[in-house]
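Researcher: We plan to redesign the surface later, but first we want a full-length starting point. Tokens attached.
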């Protein structure tokens, strides 16, 4: 009982915090919608766990908790992939900017650094 209560309070806090970050223009609207949906599902699972068990069995998983773990792992793998892509893109952009600055200041030695 206390765990459910704590989960619900934490979910509400997270939703409110995300809305506040959106109003402060720190996160995009898509984040607000995504996080609100995730935490609303979390509240639903805490309030009506039997519903999630039935959903899990409908998709071929034994228990609702197992389905949650599978979905969380898949979600984290996707987020990791997106972060790796974003990091690589930022590295390429930084390299291009540093190269332009070095060329503009006359510090680029094509023989030493190559011509990529």
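Model: Full-length starting sequence:
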């Amino acid at each position: 009982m206390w765990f459910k209560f704590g989960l619900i309070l934490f979910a509400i806090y997270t939703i409110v915090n995300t809305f506040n970050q959106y109003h402060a223009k720190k996160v995009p609207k898509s984040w607000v919608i995504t996080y609100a949906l995730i935490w609303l599902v979390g509240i639903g699972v805490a309030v009506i766990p039997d519903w999630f068990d039935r959903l899990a069995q409908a998709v071929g998983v034994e228990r609702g908790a197992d389905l949650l773990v599978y979905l969380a792992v898949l979600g984290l793998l996707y987020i990791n992939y997106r972060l790796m892509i974003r990091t690589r893109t930022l590295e390429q952009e930084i390299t291009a900017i540093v190269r332009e600055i070095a060329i503009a200041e006359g510090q680029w030695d094509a023989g030493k650094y190559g011509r990529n």
